[in-house]
Amino acid sequence: MRIYVDADACPVKDETLRVATRHAIPVVFAGNSWMRGLEHPLVTQVIAAEGINEADDRIVERIESGDIVVTGDIPLAARCLEKGANGIDHRGKRFDSNSIGMALAMRDLMTHLRDTGTVTGGPTSYNRQDRSRFLDGLERLIRLMAQSRQS
Question: What is the CATH number of the domain that holds 71?
Protein backbone atom coordinates (compact mmCIF):
# COMPACT_ATOMS: atom_id res chain seq x y z
CA MET A 1 0.00 0.00 0.00
CA ARG A 2 1.14 3.53 -0.86
CA ILE A 3 -0.51 6.90 -0.41
CA TYR A 4 -0.38 9.19 -3.42
CA VAL A 5 -1.01 12.89 -2.81
CA ASP A 6 -2.09 15.34 -5.50
CA ALA A 7 0.19 17.80 -3.79
CA ASP A 8 0.22 21.18 -5.54
CA ALA A 9 -2.80 22.65 -3.75
CA CYS A 10 -3.18 20.02 -1.02
CA PRO A 11 -3.74 21.53 2.45
CA VAL A 12 -3.14 18.23 4.28
CA LYS A 13 0.39 17.23 3.30
CA ASP A 14 1.66 17.27 6.90
CA GLU A 15 -1.40 15.40 8.18
CA THR A 16 -1.03 12.74 5.48
CA LEU A 17 2.61 12.23 6.40
CA ARG A 18 1.74 12.04 10.10
CA VAL A 19 -0.82 9.24 9.55
CA ALA A 20 1.42 7.45 7.04
CA THR A 21 4.32 7.51 9.50
CA ARG A 22 2.16 5.98 12.20
CA HIS A 23 1.35 3.08 9.85
CA ALA A 24 4.76 2.97 8.07
CA ILE A 25 3.12 3.55 4.67
CA PRO A 26 5.18 5.12 1.88
CA VAL A 27 3.84 8.43 0.54
CA VAL A 28 4.27 9.81 -2.97
CA PHE A 29 3.72 13.55 -3.34
CA ALA A 30 3.11 14.45 -6.99
CA GLY A 31 3.15 18.03 -8.21
CA ASN A 32 4.58 20.46 -10.72
CA SER A 33 7.46 21.58 -8.49
CA TRP A 34 9.68 20.42 -5.64
CA MET A 35 8.09 20.94 -2.22
CA ARG A 36 10.21 21.84 0.79
CA GLY A 37 9.60 20.31 4.18
CA LEU A 38 8.71 16.86 2.87
CA GLU A 39 12.10 15.28 3.47
CA HIS A 40 11.30 11.99 5.18
CA PRO A 41 12.38 8.36 4.66
CA LEU A 42 8.82 7.36 3.66
CA VAL A 43 8.43 10.20 1.14
CA THR A 44 9.05 10.24 -2.58
CA GLN A 45 8.38 13.34 -4.65
CA VAL A 46 7.35 13.05 -8.27
CA ILE A 47 7.83 16.25 -10.24
CA ALA A 48 5.62 16.49 -13.30
CA ALA A 49 6.02 18.80 -16.25
CA GLU A 50 4.08 22.06 -16.14
CA GLY A 51 0.63 21.71 -17.62
CA ILE A 52 -2.91 20.69 -16.90
CA ASN A 53 -3.22 17.14 -15.55
CA GLU A 54 0.51 16.39 -15.79
CA ALA A 55 0.79 15.57 -12.07
CA ASP A 56 -2.52 13.68 -12.24
CA ASP A 57 -1.16 11.58 -15.10
CA ARG A 58 1.98 10.72 -13.08
CA ILE A 59 -0.23 9.53 -10.22
CA VAL A 60 -2.43 7.42 -12.49
CA GLU A 61 0.65 5.88 -14.15
CA ARG A 62 2.01 4.71 -10.79
CA ILE A 63 -1.02 3.98 -8.60
CA GLU A 64 -2.05 0.38 -8.10
CA SER A 65 -4.93 -1.56 -6.64
CA GLY A 66 -4.92 -1.18 -2.87
CA ASP A 67 -3.23 2.24 -2.89
CA ILE A 68 -4.82 5.47 -1.67
CA VAL A 69 -5.02 8.81 -3.47
CA VAL A 70 -5.51 12.06 -1.53
CA THR A 71 -7.07 14.58 -3.88
CA GLY A 72 -9.83 17.12 -4.27
CA ASP A 73 -9.79 16.45 -8.02
CA ILE A 74 -12.82 14.25 -8.65
CA PRO A 75 -11.85 13.17 -12.19
CA LEU A 76 -8.41 12.12 -10.84
CA ALA A 77 -10.11 10.16 -8.06
CA ALA A 78 -12.29 8.43 -10.67
CA ARG A 79 -9.25 7.47 -12.75
CA CYS A 80 -7.53 6.04 -9.66
CA LEU A 81 -10.65 4.11 -8.62
CA GLU A 82 -10.71 2.52 -12.08
CA LYS A 83 -7.28 1.06 -11.26
CA GLY A 84 -8.53 -0.38 -7.95
CA ALA A 85 -7.22 2.35 -5.67
CA ASN A 86 -9.14 4.14 -2.93
CA GLY A 87 -9.63 7.88 -2.66
CA ILE A 88 -10.18 10.54 -0.05
CA ASP A 89 -10.42 14.31 -0.34
CA HIS A 90 -8.79 16.85 1.96
CA ARG A 91 -12.01 17.16 3.98
CA GLY A 92 -12.12 13.43 4.74
CA LYS A 93 -14.77 12.47 2.18
CA ARG A 94 -14.06 9.02 0.81
CA PHE A 95 -14.36 8.29 -2.89
CA ASP A 96 -15.46 4.78 -3.76
CA SER A 97 -17.36 3.01 -6.52
CA ASN A 98 -20.67 3.95 -4.85
CA SER A 99 -19.94 7.65 -4.48
CA ILE A 100 -17.78 8.63 -7.46
CA GLY A 101 -20.62 8.76 -10.00
CA MET A 102 -22.59 11.24 -7.88
CA ALA A 103 -19.45 13.25 -7.15
CA LEU A 104 -18.70 13.55 -10.89
CA ALA A 105 -22.31 14.53 -11.62
CA MET A 106 -22.30 17.20 -8.88
CA ARG A 107 -18.96 18.54 -10.14
CA ASP A 108 -20.35 18.85 -13.66
CA LEU A 109 -23.56 20.49 -12.39
CA MET A 110 -21.65 23.02 -10.28
CA THR A 111 -19.35 23.80 -13.22
CA HIS A 112 -22.39 24.42 -15.41
CA LEU A 113 -24.04 26.62 -12.75
CA ARG A 114 -20.85 28.67 -12.34
CA ASP A 115 -20.46 28.99 -16.13
CA THR A 116 -24.01 30.33 -16.43
CA GLY A 117 -23.58 32.72 -13.50
CA THR A 118 -26.21 30.98 -11.38
CA VAL A 119 -23.65 30.13 -8.71
CA THR A 120 -20.75 32.48 -8.17
CA GLY A 121 -19.10 31.07 -5.05
CA GLY A 122 -16.84 28.13 -4.51
CA PRO A 123 -16.40 25.76 -1.61
CA THR A 124 -16.28 27.04 1.94
CA SER A 125 -12.90 27.93 3.38
CA TYR A 126 -10.84 25.11 4.83
CA ASN A 127 -10.98 24.98 8.62
CA ARG A 128 -9.82 23.01 11.66
CA GLN A 129 -12.87 20.72 11.59
CA ASP A 130 -12.09 19.82 7.96
CA ARG A 131 -8.53 18.95 8.97
CA SER A 132 -9.84 16.78 11.82
CA ARG A 133 -12.31 15.03 9.49
CA PHE A 134 -9.49 14.33 7.06
CA LEU A 135 -7.27 12.81 9.76
CA ASP A 136 -10.14 10.63 10.98
CA GLY A 137 -11.17 9.66 7.44
CA LEU A 138 -7.65 8.67 6.37
CA GLU A 139 -7.12 6.68 9.56
CA ARG A 140 -10.41 4.83 9.05
CA LEU A 141 -9.65 4.13 5.39
CA ILE A 142 -6.22 2.69 6.20
CA ARG A 143 -7.69 0.47 8.92
CA LEU A 144 -10.50 -0.70 6.64
CA MET A 145 -8.03 -1.58 3.91
CA ALA A 146 -5.79 -3.44 6.38
CA GLN A 147 -8.77 -5.45 7.62
CA SER A 148 -9.86 -6.35 4.09
CA ARG A 149 -6.35 -7.60 3.26
CA GLN A 150 -6.39 -9.85 6.34
CA SER A 151 -9.72 -11.41 5.35
Answer: 3.40.50
